[in-house]
Amino acid sequence: MSPEYRTVPVLTGYIEPGAGFSEIIERAGELARDGDFLVISETPVSVAQGNLVDESRFEPSITAVLLADIWSKYIWGYILGPILGMKRRTIMNLRRLPPEARAHKEVVLRYYGLKHALKPASEAGIDLSNVPGTLVSLLPENPSGVANFIAGEILQRFGADVTAVIIDTDATYSILGRYFTSLPLAVPGIRSDTGFLGYLAGRFSGRTWPTPLASSRPVKLEVLLEVASAAEEYHRRNAERATVYDMAREFSGRPGNITVEMLSSVEHTPAVIVRPP
To answer: pLDDT by residue (tens digit) across 160-209?
Structure first.
């Protein structure tokens, strides 16, 4: 993280599906100052919108079964992952993929297509963490509109002129000065929707950043990337639950058995204020 930025966590209870953005606005508004960046993670935005899918309702196709059981679990878990320098934690999670991964691949296929389903994990920004039961969150709907709304509400109610930025932890890569991401969407200046090919090319990127999906005002791309990195670094240093599997272990259960009550029993940080010098 750049030493020039100060990070201030925005702490809330669990934001339940369809609950809207009022708690994020209230908690952030109490802390915000003019010139701050309010960096909001994409999952609480999607959950607040109710933009969720129940994977238990999807019958895996043959393609989904092959993608989960052969492509992701074995080819990536045992061959390509180690060769291409995938994180050890990700490799181990791939090797332990449960049967439910087949339905997950089916969801990716239906909503985003094969080019995203070919990614071994974290496909198209679909998130299994911080959602109850067998639900998953899709990417936020109209993230630019959400960023504008939240920034406008904070200005009107608290008098703080902030830039709201919605980010996804899935990476933005850079090769020869060109920025790209496998995600289906990103801010202008980042080539998006590259899917598996973008992910594969990203293995050769010298540096990665979290992906800004939207900003409430135009900001130079390099600044957005540094601000997103500062927020992600805060989460990395303070997070106890890096993946849905970590969350399941914390609650002594399987990922599909996590309840709203379990999620409500812990504190959440849906956003981080990144304050320039």
So the answer is: 999 999 999 999 999 999 999 999 999 999 999 999 999 999 999 989 99
Structure tokens, 171: 């990476």
- Return the H-helix or E-strand segment holding 9: strand 6-12
Task: Quote the CA–CA distance of 10 and 37 in Å, as a whole number.
Answer: 12
Q: What share of the chain is helix, strand, coil (3-state, %, to 5)?
A: 45, 20, 35
150 exposed, middle or buried (CB, 10 Å; 0-12, 13-18, 19+)?
buried
Name the residue ranges covered by the structural domains of the chain.
Answer: 6-52+139-275, 59-125
CATH 3.30.1330.100 fits 6-52+139-275, yes or no: yes
The length of the chain, given as a count of residues: 277
pTM greater than the 0.70 cutoff? yes
226-229's contacts with Cβ under 8 Å and 24+ in sequence apart are 226/2, 226/5, 227/5, 227/37, 227/39, 227/165, 227/274, 228/39, 228/165, 228/167, 229/1, 229/2
Q: How far apart are CA 168 and CA 149, in angstroms?
A: 19
